[in-house]
Design a protein that fits this description.
Structural class of chain B: mainly alpha
Strand content of chain B: under 5%
CATH topology of chain B: 434 Repressor (Amino-terminal Domain)
Number of helices of chain B: 5
Oligomer: heterodimer
Number of strands of chain A: 11
CATH superfamily of chain B: lambda repressor-like DNA-binding domains
Structural class of chain A: alpha+beta
Number of helices of chain A: 8
Radius of gyration of chain A: 30 Å
CATH class of chain B: Mainly Alpha
Radius of gyration of chain B: 10 Å
């Protein structure tokens, strides 16, 4: 294929993918909302009694699945950014949120002077009712804790401990509170995320292809040419890699059944199997001199692999310190950089060893 | 089994493994594997090697009794 044709095709593909990516990302931000509401309430406390005692909101879930339940209650003038600056000790009441299902069974409960939170709830189809209450005394607080949060035995300790942070309970006054609640479907969001990721991956491939086309010398991109022995060795490499993937997946499912590993952690399960397969294939081919084509320059590729390994190592370290590598005790997407680092370093080391072995067995005549 | 006939025929023409590989259109490791007896080439590759070395198939690839 001519270089100019490659440029034009890659450019068109890249532009199309950017368009698709923007479309899906836009969709992700707007399309997954199941229910949301924002309102403000003037809460007045007089002699320990709240004029505005309860606030109710209902929403309906039509499809079972995981939902992001995001809510906040803050005094007027504060936002998520400065929630820690809210002087909770000056509030004369504590807001309590209770989420019930249609059978009046408690799904979620929390209490605080001011807070913002995001949590994931697994919900079944049906109507849910969110209730806000305003508590003004330790007794009310204790009763609430005993009923919904920690049981009758530890409720008094909990209430006393918590009440210590709200020194002004039962204090008279008027407060304007901003409430916000949003329920969004994680299933729909994941769908958009998957498409967005796929588009991003293809976009990356296009860019790599374009860069390769730019730096390749000559007018045509050479397709790799392997001799008959190399083709046979590559076939063997594929076979071993395939069986390696099967064995890894089987082993992971066996360990998962025994409780040593969670096979539902798809990112680690599949990427571990994929990278193990890739390692077996590539290392076998390198060792049997079937990785590089006849018309390929090996030194350039070895240096490139070393640089890729280094850049992935840097990304792994950054993602570790940013908390992306391990999130909530599970590996995040940063684990892909870790696997890439291991793979490329393996390739680099095996290539170097093979070069040394070849140099020793070099037969000039 | 090592293919010493191939090695000697190549040496007689003062060709290195790499030279022969380039003329035949395969990798140096493939010629090396054939000489060491680690790889049995196809008839097409045998013919290509024989043509470059100016020998017949019998002379290079037929085992002595």
């Amino acid at each position: 294929m001519k270089k100019t044709t490659v440029y034009v095709l890659s450019l068109i593909a890249a532009l199309a993918l950017i368009g698709f990516s923007i479309f899906f990302l836009k969709d992700q931000f707007k399309g997954d909302n199941v229910w949301s509401s924002d309102w403000s309430v003037g809460v007045s406390v007089e002699d320990g009694i709240v004029a505005h005692e309860t606030s109710l909101s209902e929403f309906t879930i039509s499809k079972a699945g995981d939902y992001n339940f995001s809510f906040s209650w803050l005094p007027s003038g504060y936002s998520k950014k400065n929630v820690t600056e809210v002087p909770s000790h000056e509030l004369g009441f504590v807001t309590v949120l209770l989420l019930f299902d249609k059978s009046k069974d408690l799904v979620y409960a929390t209490a605080s002077g001011a807070m913002t939170a995001d949590t994931t709830l697994t919900l079944s189809p049906g109507t849910y009712c969110a209730e806000y209450h305003y508590l003004t005394s330790i007794e009310q607080y204790e009763e609430y804790a005993a009923k919904y949060l920690c049981g009758a035995y530890s409720a008094p300790y909990w209430a006393r401990e918590q009440a210590g942070t709200f020194a002004s309970l039962q204090k008279n006054g008027n407060w304007t509170m901003e409430y916000s609640m949003k329920v969004s479907s994680l299933s729909d969001a994941s769908y958009a995320t998957s498409l967005g990721m796929l588009m991003g991956f293809l976009l990356g491939l296009c860019l790599v292809f374009m860069i390769l086309a730019l730096i390749t010398k000559g007018n045509r991109l050479k397709s790799p040419k392997y001799d008959e022995r190399q083709e046979i060795e590559r076939g063997r490499g594929f076979k071993y890699a395939f069986f390696c993937m099967l064995i890894i997946l089987f082993a992971l499912s066996v360990f998962s059944a025994g409780g040593f590993f969670d096979a539902r952690d798809f990112l680690v399960t599949y990427s571990l199997a994929m990278f193990a397969g890739v390692n077996v294939y590539v290392l076998y081919c390198i060792w049997h001199e079937a990785y590089f084509a006849l018309n390929q320059k090996t030194t350039y590729v070895i240096v490139m692999f070393f640089l890729i390994a280094l850049s992935n190592l840097a990304l792994t370290i950054f993602s570790y310190f940013d908390g992306i590598l391990i999130q909530n005790g599970k590996f995040g997407y940063g684990v892909l950089n870790l696997f890439c680092t291991i793979t490329f370093f393996n390739m680099f080391i095996v290539m170097l060893i093979k070069r040394c072995v070849n140099a020793r067995s070099e037969d000039s005549l | 089994m090592k293919n010493l006939k191939l090695k000697s025929a190549r040496a007689a023409l003062d060709l290195s493994q790499q030279d022969l590989a380039d003329k035949v259109g395969v990798s140096r490791q493939t010629i090396n594997a054939i000489e060491k007896g680690d790889y049995n080439p196809t008839i097409n590759l045998c013919r290509a090697i024989c043509k470059v070395l100016g020998k017949t198939l019998d002379e290079i690839f037929w085992e002595d009794e």
